[in-house]
Amino acid sequence: MSTNTLQECDKNGYDLVRGFLTPENLLNIHAELRLLADAVGARIGVSSAGIPDSEIDRPFVEIVKRRPDWQSILYQRLQQLPSIISACSLPQVREMSQSLLKTTAISVWPRVQVRLDLFEDSKNHIRWHHDYLYNRGTQDSFTFWIPLSNVDASMGLLQIAKGSHITADSFHFEKSSDVNKFDYTLSQDQVDRLDIVVPQSYQAGDLAVFHSKTIHSGALNQNPDRARLTLLFRLQNLHTLEDL
Ligand SMILES: O=C(O)CCC(=O)C(=O)O
After folding, report:
1. Does pLDDT of 63 surpass 90?
2. pLDDT digit string (tens) for 197-217?
3. What's the rounded Cα separation, in Å, for the pair 64 and 108?
4. pLDDT in tens, 107-150
5. Separation of CA 126 and ligand 1 centre (Å)
């Protein structure tokens, strides 16, 4: 891992690492995503044939368009692909998490996850928050957010507040009670205090890595033909668990 990532995470609370997953890592993950899409799609005439790996979200979008009632089954199966479950033990993940957390005693918390952010899915949209609000465990935690297909601005971009891991406790998060499953957000005057950066596009396999107190927000996907398909997990320092 470059010392740059350590410095960036220290200073800004996040770093963007292009090409974090190797072509071989991606080949394995994409092969399994394709097998899942084709196994489910075969029931309703949807196939991934001809779709490049960089847009492997497309057959999933098509399946959910035709069978909205299958969304949750598809989502659950995405979580359980072997290459997804084992992604957090890839050598570059180990190396980076050990350097960032300064320990080899590391655990995933609460789980490895795949997000499938579909067109205007406001129920699953995560607004302004930091991950410690939702996940707890220990503040000594870094989130690995890795798109599995290419993401452009139409699909909603991650907004990250630079340096907010240091000032997070001075922000007041509000709880809303709307359809959204993730109920924390910030009022506009609180958002105005943030120094927000929005990386404009991601290739499959890029990494955004951020500290548990780094304030960030997802954005609604505005592209009806694409989904933001992301792998994410949080790695925590087992020496600093707060509930013991
Ligand atoms: O992918 C997204 O839209 C946001 C994800 C996120 O903020 C999170 O899981 O903490």
Report:
1. yes
2. 999 999 999 999 999 999 999
3. 29
4. 999 999 999 999 999 888 999 999 999 999 999 999 999 999 99
5. 6
The alpha carbon of 45 and the centre of ligand 1 are apart by a number of angstroms equal to 31
Residue type, 90: L
**Cα–Cα distance, 132 to 213 (Å, whole number):** 6
- Token pair of 75 as six digits: 């989502």
| CATH of span 3-240 | 2.60.120.620
* Tokens of residue 91, six digits: 């050598």
Residue of the CA atom closest to atom 5 of ligand 1:
218
Most informative mutation of 112, 114, 121, 126 for ligand 1 (most atoms within 8 A of CB): 126
The two three-digit tokens of residue 144, written as one number: 């690995």
